[in-house]
Amino acid sequence: MKTQTKPLNIGIVGAAGRGDSFTAACQASGGVAIHAVCDLNETALTESRTRLGAREQYVDYADMLARSDLQAVIIGTPMPLHVPQAIAALDRGVHVLSEVPAGISLVECSDLVAAAKRSRAVYMMAENYTYMRPNAIVRELVRKGLFGETYYAEGEYLHELKELNEVTKWRRRWQTGINGITYGTHSLGPILQWMPGDRVVSVSCVGSGHHHRDPRGAVYENEDSCVMLCRMAKGGLVKIRVDMLSDRPHAMANYSLQGTDGAYESARAKGEQNRIWLRSINAVPDSWTDLASLADAHLPEYWRSAGEAAAKAGHGGGDFFEVMDFLDAVAGRRPCPIGIHEAMDMTLPGLVSQQSIAQGGVWLPVPDSRSW
Ligand SMILES: NC(=O)c1ccc[n+]([C@@H]2O[C@H](COP(=O)([O-])OP(=O)(O)OC[C@H]3O[C@@H](n4cnc5c(N)ncnc54)[C@H](O)[C@@H]3O)[C@@H](O)[C@H]2O)c1
Predict the structure, then answer these.
(1) What would the pLDDT profile of 156-189 be if each residue is shown by its tens digit?
(2) Residue 213 lies in a domain
(3) What is the tally of structural domains in the chain?
């Protein structure tokens, strides 16, 4: 007789916004049901429920947690809701996949760490840029030792979103309404994976001044370009630049990496190549190779087997693989790759940078959540 295993019931909060992006992976994974959707926007919620094929819909998150038969939630709500909603789920033993960043203050991040420690449920932060194809290849090359020792990196998130601030109003408060690095995990996340076993121990943050006003004539509290220098525990250096205000053609995420045996420069604009130099491949020191030419030999296995399905999901496959990793962690098949401490390693430097820039760029220590 065939045994029917019960699907893992997932609830998506913020389902009418970002929450929607996780569906391709949930549907492709098998054994998972988007059981409930939750959003304050009732009209959009009903549409989401139909689109995602959910059985239940809620306008109140606490109500969904209390009444629905859920084993996991995906949190796609605005930034200040990530921690309270994650803690509420973890305290009920419900697994959490939370949007980035993990939290908006050091105090609430420490509350989240405590909740993750006392819960039997999995916490994962959905840092999708770590899974993008070029970033995944670079990570694989680092893992194989082809970069030697990695000691310097740059990450940039240059996403002009002044108009989006007016549509998703929480951005005007939490992303452009605070000075410093308010949205840094897309830049820092992949880089931390390229410097395995390392973490940011102190940061200094400065800005380029204020050259833009919102439609009401108010100056954005966030300086146009904020740059955070990160001192790494092993002595290396990382530079993160975030700019959500300056006018420029779209070229959102840029990276570079330097190791003792290799260098990487991602494409800065459409049509450019992601360039790599590896001592073991390019005998001539000043000859770059197109990163794409190394895909046959170095694309990680998970990308090979699911690339086609992943391509249909958003953010260059990132929205797909993060869900797969979360489901693997929930099922105990593999450890969670961006669990609570990795999420803190990616989130806390940006929060400390906000104190640094307020004090004229002074270097400040970044706490290690493992010691909390
Ligand atoms: N990883 C990525 O690439 C990526 C991309 C976009 C957004 N994000 C993150 O996703 C989150 C949402 O961003 P967005 O652009 O979708 O914003 P959004 O405003 O478009 O969507 C958020 C949704 O949450 C709902 N919501 C707000 N408060 C709620 C509550 N208390 N209970 C239930 N629903 C509530 C809103 O009605 C809205 O539908 C943010 O944290 C953002 O940083 C990540």
Answers:
(1) 999 999 999 999 999 999 999 999 999 999 999 9
(2) yes
(3) 2
